[in-house]
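Can't attach files on this board, so I'm pasting raw text. These are the components:
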Amino acid sequence: MFDIDRWNEIWHALTKNKVRSLLTAFGVFWGIFMLIIMSGASNGLKNGIVEGVAKFATNSAFIWTDRTSEPYKGFTRGRYWLFNSDDLVYLKANVPELEFLTPKNFGQFGSSNNVIRGRLSGSYNIKGDYPEYVKIDPYTLVFGRWINEMDIRDRRKVCVIGEKVYETLFEAKEDPIGEYLKISGVYYQVVGVVRPETRVNINGRAEESVFLPFTTMQQTFNMGDQVHFMAFTAKKGIPVSVVEEKIKTILKKRHSIAPTDTQALQSVNIEKQFQQISGLFLGIGILTWIVGIGTLMAGVIGVSNIMLVIVRERTKEIGVQRALGARPSTIISQIMLESVVLTTVAGYIGLSLGVGLLELVNKALEMQSKGGDEIFFRNPEVNLNIALASLAVLVIAGLFAGSIPAKRALSIKPIEALREE
Amino acid sequence: MIVLDSVHKSYVTGNNSLHVLKGIDLEIGAGEFVSIMGSSGSGKSTLLNILGILDDYDSGSYVLNGKKIKSLNETKAAMLRNEMIGFVFQSFNLISFKNARENVALPLYYQKVSRRKRNVIAMEYLDRMGLKDWADHLPSELSGGQKQRVAIARALISNPKVILADEPTGALDTTTSFEVMDILKEVNDQGITVIIVTHEHDIASMTRKIIRLRDGVIAEVIKNGDLQMYRDRVLAE
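---
Top answer:
Structure tokens for the assembled complex are below.
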């Protein structure tokens, strides 16, 4: 395998007609190049989307109210309604499959400059939350702490602010803890600053939100026992949709909503969304491999064809070698090796260029994301396994491409080869 | 050395069967210098192919150096060719991208002799052919006579018992032809059996035995006194 004569022969065979060898190699090069680019691109898309929601609890769902669409029990259709605090207590007691159930209330939209600190002010989303909410949609604490049980119990006038709010209302590196903000006319003490870990936005971006203890919000915003929105997770091993249906049935019953009304209760099942997305990426992945392998196959068939031509051209040479005592195995391994060298070298270049291009794209994307832009395309990389698998595919493809010409070379009888002038 | 007993060979192409060798009985002893003559179609190339284990025969028997040659698999045939037989061709058949030394060393390469060792041996043989200074030249840089001498060196390097030469002078001018024949004679003087296929009478007359083929059978064997007469006749022409 590693003797000079053999490599000299391979070199000679492949460089005798350089243009032809290059064009043939290009077929394989392009096949592997496309495979790498496509699988990198689909990985990038996947990373971009998955990274945005990766830390979000996948076994969760959200539920909120809308106007009714059917008359029921003496109520007319089109009725406005809301959940209430008793629903929470009832659901927690009667749905054992629930892991967490946290309500969420929202302040009014469109109130301009509703958050004021001294001479600085801004318009932000006001949200009332329970401590458990961060179990579903995790936040990183930049300063202080998140809302706790005592805040809820005592209806403390404290708030946790999003990072953007902090950046606007506070000086750089200023300690916000203990400072006061005037929110919709009432003063609250800042106890924490958070940065969201996901890019899931419920009623506005978390960075630009102010979070109050849920009970405090109900009181100071005159919401009584109203509940706008609920997020919940199912216990391990139980599909979220089961819990979702159970909760919906209970709530409809408690609020005299027709069981068939599909509009009055709106919900999003994150588990289902995740399944759809991963199904989509599985599809993209399969398509990538089908197209990539197809292109690669076309290249390999090209190599096989050219090897046949090379064997034809070298008929006489092969005949002489056999007359001088070259064994069939020597001839076969020679042709196979030529084919493998051609495909592997071409493929390796395709692999390197493909990975290099992805790396460039990645660098460009990183620069862009540092600028704070929302991008849905991240780390378009191919993992080592795919790269190794493609190399293995190349070697096997090369052997495959070489096997038919090698057989042909062997079927040439030395005499016939020598007779050819 | 070589014993053929009623060897038959026919080629089948489609529905046609061409009976080329129709019972060849032949004995060539060790150290003989033989030429095989015949017009085209007489079966001389076919006979040479069978002698060189490049082709199989249909019936009869062929014994080479005490070993019966029949229906060998390709690997065995390749090994026998490598050990027993040296080939010299009309069109030299040197490998175009290998230099003279590498061409000569080729049979040793198939014997898996190390590169350094086979290059040393190849240089010896080239030196014997007077081509030491041409060792690094490619075949395209050599003259016809030089090419054939390289080919003879290549045939000799594996120490064969038999040299088979198919029209070795066919592509050479008269002077060079005689030079090549002198070399083959020297080779024969060292005890190696040399068999030449040719249609040139003057070349044939330089050997010690002439076998004439006609229509697939041996028509005439000229040797000893007859050969001297034959030589005189050829020279007179």
